[in-house]
Amino acid sequence: MKPDNPNRVPIDVYLSFVSSLSGNRMTLLAGVIVHVATCLAVAAKTQFFVYIPLAAAFLLVFCVRMVIFRQFDCVDKESLSRAGIERWERILVAGAACTTALLGIASGYAIFVVHDSFAELACIAVTMATMVSVVGRNYGSRLAVDLQTFSCCLPMIVCSLLALDFYRGLLSIFLIPFWLTTRAMANGVREFLYENVIARREITIIADRFDTALNNMPHGLVMVDAENRIQVVNRKACELLKIGAPERLKDRDLGAVLRYGARYSFMDASQPELILRQLTQVAEGNLSRTLIHFPEGLSLEFSASRRADGGAVLIFEDVSSRVKAEQKIMHMVRFDALTGLPNREYFGQLVQEYLGKHQRKSGPLGFMVLDIDEFKHVNDMRGHVTGDHLLCAIAARIKQASGNAILGRLMGDQFILFFPHAKEPASLDIEIRRVHAAIQGHYEVDELTFLVSLSAGYAILESTAFAMDEWSVKADLALFESKSRFRGGISGFEREMDGRYIEQQKLKADLRDAVSAQALHLVFQPMFRADGSRIECAEALARWVHPEKGSIPPDVFIRLAEDMGIISDITRFVLFKACSECMNWPDHIAVSVNLSARDLRDADILAVVADALAHSGLDAARLHLEVTESCLIDEPAAVRAILAELRARGITIAIDDFGTGFSSLSYLDTLPLDIVKIDRSFVRNIVEDTRRLKLLRGTVHLARELGLKIVIEGVETEEQLALLNKHRSADLVQGYVFSQPVPSQNIPLLQQGIGRRVVQRRRNKVA
């Protein structure tokens, strides 16, 4: 790296080299004193008074150089351009060259004119000494070195040669190597200093970059030596550990610094030793990293590595946000978002942890499942927001009443409780029933009052016999038993329930086989005109005769089919069979088929209905499809779209069991309906209860105002039929007053019988 050309040298380095030409001014003062004294001594010794003007010239040049130096000092160095620096270099070099030129002239004059050994020795010695000082003072400028050595040596060489003395001439020739050596030395010093300046500059830049990176990295870093003394620490480490400024911690013992931080900051007294211990384990490879939690919600993750000299590098970062996010995710995974109670999986984990801690403890344990009765009606009537608030209120009361029991939310409106060891089963039974009784009653939610009952099933067992899945099933069986008896009841598990459960599972398997083999059969309950003069439609009803148990009630096997998810298979069977049978009836008689909620969850039912009509050849106008209000709860918009498409194809749509829901009236105006089938509960006491008759008439009037046809279900007596006809409350009547459900082949026979009675009645009138 040779700075032979100023244009190659960075401008700041070039300026520092030029500035060196005006430095060491005391040596200049000493030099001018020596120069003047030498000239005066030579003049006094040799009586050559030409040396007196030379002495004056030395003084004059010195004074001029001092003035130039002062001017250079006053210049704003940062504003100097490269050209300005070059100009000042030339000015400073010119002053130095004047001094060396005077020395060369004084020496040459002594050699060529004076011929005095003292004069020659004094002048040449002072000149050579000055030449040596050129290396130390003017290394910064190649021009200064070249010009000063040339102006100094040239007069001596010329005068030695003009003296026509062989030895003097030979000696003068030796000045050339001296000149070159001096020049090379100065250049070497300049190059060496240039390389060091550049290297130091690069080191400074690297150090600044490292310091910037070190103090702006998101991680804390502490580097310690083999004695555990801090060598490097960044600002982030000091901020995270709150241990003061980095510059104050150099060469301090890390343990002492941490203990000081524990004393005067947020750390616990035990944490410094924990950090050091974990640091040792991580550095030795026993741990890959470690997480330490501090007060104020701070979590730091540490990692460390050993250095070859026995020291270590400790790196740590603030992972508080990550830890909080993980805790939040873990909470979301473990707890129900609405009630804040443990979910089923975490509830099981809590129970297993309890059993693991109390393995040696004996005594009965309790397991209870709670189910809120008719909770879906709250959502239907008051909306899901109010329903959610009610669920939270119920969960809070259960938590308050359950004491030290472990509580969880199963799903929807079900809760589960685990009761820890008790002294005896009787006391645990009393405690479980107390909790159940405490959570029943009124709840104030959203300025509304709800009377809430919860059905419960529980099992009491010895801790040695506990198995989560098995006893959960037993509690479910007890809950099923409780709900089948009366709402809001509680039942404990009994061994007979296992038998009933096994029997139910077998019945499910048999039903699946029966559906697969199409072993069900249909009966049809006709719908008559109110005067009994004609059958307009017949409702298809599925029946199942079990090979061992005989006839299974429809409400039993239909509920099982819904639980098993095979109700759509039954619907398909009924649709195809009913459409085919209807083709054997008189043309004016239609067939009606019930659709379940599962059937209407997707658009597959459209294809099923189309296939049934195409397979049988039945006109779409002769097919009626009945839906209940429960079909409309989950996805009313999707159900409405499916029904509209079916109606657009010419199929008649009826709403079944109207009046048993909580918001049926709202569906009359929004759904694509043709027929309203009023539930039998409206008819049961209309003869005795005038209020119920008024309610029925009002519902009928509303439906007719909307252009809907009325079918009254469950008409069983002549008195009920006469009352309905008196008030013209029905378009069609379905019930035992006219006919029970009959096989398909009986429908034409019934119609024929009606025809004969009508003809006979007309003949009687004529007669």
TrEMBL record:
<dbReference type="InterPro" id="IPR000014">
    <property type="entry name" value="PAS"/>
</dbReference>
<dbReference type="InterPro" id="IPR035919">
    <property type="entry name" value="EAL_sf"/>
</dbReference>
<feature type="transmembrane region" description="Helical">
    <location>
        <begin position="91"/>
        <end position="112"/>
    </location>
</feature>
<feature type="transmembrane region" description="Helical">
    <location>
        <begin position="26"/>
        <end position="44"/>
    </location>
</feature>
<keyword id="KW-1133">Transmembrane helix</keyword>
<dbReference type="Pfam" id="PF00563">
    <property type="entry name" value="EAL"/>
</dbReference>
<dbReference type="InterPro" id="IPR001633">
    <property type="entry name" value="EAL_dom"/>
</dbReference>
<dbReference type="InterPro" id="IPR029787">
    <property type="entry name" value="Nucleotide_cyclase"/>
</dbReference>
<feature type="domain" description="GGDEF">
    <location>
        <begin position="363"/>
        <end position="495"/>
    </location>
</feature>
<feature type="transmembrane region" description="Helical">
    <location>
        <begin position="118"/>
        <end position="140"/>
    </location>
</feature>
<keyword id="KW-0472">Membrane</keyword>
<dbReference type="Pfam" id="PF00990">
    <property type="entry name" value="GGDEF"/>
</dbReference>
<dbReference type="Pfam" id="PF12860">
    <property type="entry name" value="PAS_7"/>
</dbReference>
<feature type="transmembrane region" description="Helical">
    <location>
        <begin position="50"/>
        <end position="70"/>
    </location>
</feature>
<feature type="domain" description="EAL">
    <location>
        <begin position="504"/>
        <end position="755"/>
    </location>
</feature>
<protein>
    <submittedName>
        <fullName>Bifunctional diguanylate cyclase/phosphodiesterase</fullName>
    </submittedName>
</protein>
<dbReference type="InterPro" id="IPR043128">
    <property type="entry name" value="Rev_trsase/Diguanyl_cyclase"/>
</dbReference>
<dbReference type="InterPro" id="IPR052155">
    <property type="entry name" value="Biofilm_reg_signaling"/>
</dbReference>
<feature type="transmembrane region" description="Helical">
    <location>
        <begin position="152"/>
        <end position="180"/>
    </location>
</feature>
<dbReference type="InterPro" id="IPR035965">
    <property type="entry name" value="PAS-like_dom_sf"/>
</dbReference>
<keyword id="KW-0812">Transmembrane</keyword>
<dbReference type="InterPro" id="IPR000160">
    <property type="entry name" value="GGDEF_dom"/>
</dbReference>
